[in-house]
Amino acid sequence: MAHTRICDLPLNVGLGFVPAGPSEYPRRIMSHTYDYTGIEARWQGIWEQRDTFRALNPGDEGFDGGKPKYYVVDMFPYPSGVGLHVGHPLGYIATDIVARYKRMTGHNVLHPMGYDAFGLPAEQFAVEHGVHPKITTDKNIANMTRQLKRLGLSYDWDRCVETTDPGYYKWTQWIFLRLYKSWFDPVAQKARPISELVQALEAGDYDIGADGSLVADTAGGALDTLGGVEPGARKWTELAPDQQARLLDEYRLAYLAEVPVNWCPALGTVLANEEVTNEGKSDRGNHAVYKRPMKQWMLRITAYCERLADDLGMVDWPEPIKLMQRNWIGRSEGAEVHFPLAFGSAESSEDVITVFTTRPDTLFGATYMVLAPEHPLVESLTTDEQRQAVNDYQKQAATRSDIDRQAETKQKTGVFTGAYALNPVDNDKVPIWVADYVMMGYGTGAIMAVPAHDQRDFDFAKQFGLEIKPVVLPTQDWMKSHAPEGCDKEDAHDLMAHYVAAADTFDAAFGGMGAGINSENAEVSLNGKLTPEAKDAMIGWLKQRGFGKGTIQYRLRDWLFSRQRYWGEPFPILHAPDGHIVPVPEEDLPVALPEMEDFKPSASDDPDAPPQTPLSRAPESWKYVEVDGVKYTRELNTMPQWAGSCWYYLRYLDAGNDERFVGKEAERYWMGDNGLDLYVGGAEHAVLHLLYSRFWHKVLFDLGHVGTAEPFGRLYNQGYIQAYAYTDKRGVYIDAEKVQEEDGKFTAGGEPVSREFGKMGKSLKNAVSPDEVCEQYGCDTLRLYEMYLGPLDQSKVWSTRDIVGVHRFLQRLWRNFVDEETGELLVVSDKADESLKRKLHKTIKRVTDSMDAMAFNVAIAALIELNNELVGIKTIPREVAENMIPLLAPSAPHICEEIWKRMGHDDSISTTDWPTHDPAMLIEDTAEYPVQVNGKLRGKVTVPTDADDAAIEAAARGDENVAAHMDGKTVRKVIVIKGRLINIVVG
RNA sequence: GGCCCUGUAGCCCAAUUGGCAGAGGCACGCGACUUAAAAUCGCGCCAGUGUGGGUUCGAGUCCCACCAGGGCCA
């Protein structure tokens, strides 16, 4: 498929400079001052001309397989209409420095860039302005590419990917089909082709249980996780073909399901849980979101919960990000407990309420049960007397948001169903209530309430006068601070007696761990057992008696994968008239988006408005496909924005491949054993993109399409660039550029404004464009400034005022190397003197260490220091110049290329070897030791570097002031730390 | 409410990971150059590390509590 990608368009630096070939390198320049504009445009032209940063794949001509690989990727941007502000390139500059540094240390470096171009803003802009999203997207990509190229970033632009490119989303669709055509084998804990499930079923390895679960046909316990032996199990061969098809759909990793979804009428689409804020609003646009059932595509990410959590152990990521992912996955260990209904027979599942609890050890204290208002059993359980009250309550609950319902401070509400269940441990009748503090979406939508040991249950029980039975003995301290008036808080026995007799008189529930009390039946006793032990004992008993089992519960839900949008990937799916689903044959991919005039989503204020996808208005010729005389309808939803970003790092490896999503050899080489060597982006993607992406990667791994279990071996989060923002007296943001400062007061147009502070961006009107800075100071200055602001992973404040600091550094560097009067190079073949040489080697070490630690601010500081040293001398010894310029080259590549060229090198500095320091040059002949007496600095002594501890100690004792402080006291201890200090402890 | 991160000079930040608190930049002051200013060059200025405890011969660094700012989850 022939198509022109926007990022293929030629460089337009907008400076009237037409890139010249290397042979046309200008020999004479009019002015000899630091002409960053000319230098930067010239070198950017040369790099582009020479393909300097093209990365070779195995098999390419000139590929050197002997070098180690280094694959470094930025989280690719959304091509927004306003272009880049200086906050965006923070990470890009950092990865560029790493890429350039790694090239110089002998690595094959792959450093690509692309665009995540599907999504709401382009579509919304298109709707508002009547322009096709393709046109705005292309325009924005062209602009951002121009901005990025102007920063001198060493991307291999030949590998640029755009998620909206049919040549790209062909493979997004292909991967979707991999998910559709796979199932998750819970025994092997991996995805397998669905055809293997069919084979297993045909071979009779599994039977089908009454509830559709697979039941191992063998007696062995290995397949236990698939479900217990069920009496109503049927053979695969007994099923009708459509039943077989439906059964398979139950196991696919991509499946259609009628599920309660987050419906946002204002956006006219559904949203994933991850796209809904805590306030129950849409992440984008802050519109109201409602729960409603809809038939949607889902991806079975929950099958991978365990591996997604466990495999975080094998990647080098910031701990807080790992923690956030673990929290999001939300693994909790506990037990599933079946409560028989008081008047049921407990023979079939309908007569049982199943709950999940993390505290099975408190089962003896379960004095009532609560169902979520949406729980399917509410209808059948409720007695006639209570029906009216329950129905009213359900209606009322539907209007409250989940957050509202879960707030612990809020007063609890609820209503009795009139029905009872039996606590399996003692056959006590426990009332079944309906209350909205229990969510249908988590666990089973039903809980056993243990009011003595759960605060929400405690509040509820107090409010409705339900029994509070303590079954865990709290700590002394806890009882002391929560005991009611009238009991002796200093008397442990009195406290305990009070608690056991009347836990409801205490002012809170005890949720901690402790010894069991009141927990005994004929077969099991938890009394005296500590919580973990008690849990095990209870789970053992439950399992033995068939009342439950130990399970692991996850917070993560399956991924809602349909959107009612135009500007997204179409699904490669056809619907037959009889409702069954047929995947589009892979040779027919991509299913291209149809050309459409009207692609507006059907937005509405009415939460009950029926969802209508833009593609339902597509031309008939697109919507319907006839195969073998059957008229199929295409799937009319599109994929969410996250789809394209799930795998782009794989496409970079082999961007032009029309045969495969990525060539095997390219994938094996660049992904290596641990995936990406460095992945840099904002922490805001901690739980969305990074989780989805890992999930897809694992599926591809299971199916043998990629060779690593994890995609991103190392992750690094850059901080945000923040900036001052200003509001007028109405609280409206004012353009930061219009604000003036006088005597610490801020005004705009004569009106006083107040200063705030926040992440740079359009909404706070405090964005600074990199174009402005490049024009005024050059991009080398911008690059240095952004790195010099502070540690990369921390947020820092943009201050245009401070840019001059690094700019002065570059000017000073220029003057150190080039005579501004004559343009003459000031590098000479003289030897450097000893102290300068030492300084140089110290700098090499410091810069190298800092580069490895990604502490670019420190690396730059070290180079400024060395440069300041050179200010004092008229000419630069070549041995200094030859080392110093390469040290700076990754950070400020343009000026370094220019000086390098003038020093007589014809090759780009980017291919030069990174300097190495001579350890001998770091060793001084003598060392100065601070001498402490009792930890306080009392003197300094200078001794030969190779002096032994005794000699150092002797020298220290010889110091006059030290001796004075030791006078008349006994020396208790002498600590001599080689190369550090001496501490004499006296007393 | 829980968890995580951060707190060093007027400001941004270093500190070899437990070893002399100061590398660098900004701002400021003085001087040189200049008719003058800018630029440039030179010199100088300033904190005991948010607060209170603890561990240690020794704490910016480790532990506990609190305070402030930021983030994530409720």
Task: Briefly summarize what is shown.
With 987 residues, the chain is α+β, with helices and mostly antiparallel strands. Strand 26 (678-681), helix 21 and strand 27 form a beta-alpha-beta unit.
Instruction: Determine the number of helices (DSSP H or I, runs of at least 4 residues).
Output: 30
Residues in helices, as a percent range: 25-40%
Q: Strand order within the widest sheet?
A: 2-1-26-27
Which residues sit in consecutive blocks of at least 5 with pLDDT less than 50? 7-30, 219-230
From the alpha-carbon coordinates, what is the Rg to the nearest angstrom?
35 Å
Average the pLDDT over all residues and give the rounded result: 84
Distance between the termini: 85 Å
CATH architecture assignment name of the domain at 6-158 and 643-717 = 3-Layer(aba) Sandwich
**Outline type:** globular
Number of E strands: 40
* Strand coverage percent: 15-25%
Biggest sheet: strands, sense, closure? 4 strands, parallel
Q: What's the CATH C level of the domain at 6-158 and 643-717?
A: Alpha Beta
What oligomeric arrangement do these chains adopt? Answer: single chain
Which fold does the CATH topology of the domain at 6-158 and 643-717 refer to?
Rossmann fold
CATH homology superfamily name of the domain at 6-158 and 643-717: HUPs
Structural class: alpha+beta
